[in-house]
């Protein structure tokens, strides 16, 4: 029997480029004062800026709160909704 993993909703809420929260986070891969790399339900998310600080991290709930000046948010990797081969997606 195949187990299905529960997918947590992914959202980004930011205020004045100074503070915000991200949900649907699976893991924090790296962080320093200029960038934070997160593995989310929607792929890899890189947050770039200055004086970045991870204030609260709750991986069991999939949430991260951050502070600092945010200059960019960039996704990389594949969209989880498009996983699988072309043939598999055609014959669902």
What does the secondary structure layout of this molecule look like, with pairings?
Blueprint: E1 11-15, E2 19-23, E3 25-31, E4 35-40, E5 43-58, E6 63-76, H1 86-90
Antiparallel strand pairs: 1-2, 2-6, 3-4, 4-5, 5-6
How would you describe this protein?
The chain has 92 residues and is mainly β. It has one domain (11-90): Immunoglobulin-like (Sandwich), CATH 2.60.40.2000. It has one helix spanning 86-90, and strands at residues 11-15, 19-23, 25-31, 35-40, 43-58, 63-76. The protein has a 6-stranded antiparallel beta sheet, with no helix packed on it. The protein is globular. 12% of the residues are buried.
Please give a handful of descriptors for the protein shown:
single chain; 92 residues; mainly beta; Immunoglobulin-like; six-stranded antiparallel beta sheet; 1 helix; 5% helix
Q: What's the level 1 CATH class?
A: Mainly Beta
The pLDDT mean sits at 85
Which structural class matches the secondary elements?
Answer: mainly beta
The secondary-structure element order is EEEEEEH
Shape: globular
How large is the count of helical segments? 1
CATH architecture: Sandwich
The third-level CATH topology is Immunoglobulin-like
What is the helical fraction, as a range of percent?
Answer: under 10%
């Amino acid at each position: 029997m195949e187990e299905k993993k529960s997918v947590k909703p992914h959202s980004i809420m930011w205020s004045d480029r100074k503070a915000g929260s991200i949900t649907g986070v699976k893991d924090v891969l790296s962080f320093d004062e200029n960038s934070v790399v997160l593995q989310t339900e929607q792929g890899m998310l890189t947050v770039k800026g200055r004086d970045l600080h991870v204030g609260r991290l709750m991986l069991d709930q999939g949430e991260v709160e951050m502070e600092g000046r945010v200059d960019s948010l960039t996704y990389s990797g594949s969209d989880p909704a498009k996983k699988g081969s072309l043939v598999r997606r055609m014959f669902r």
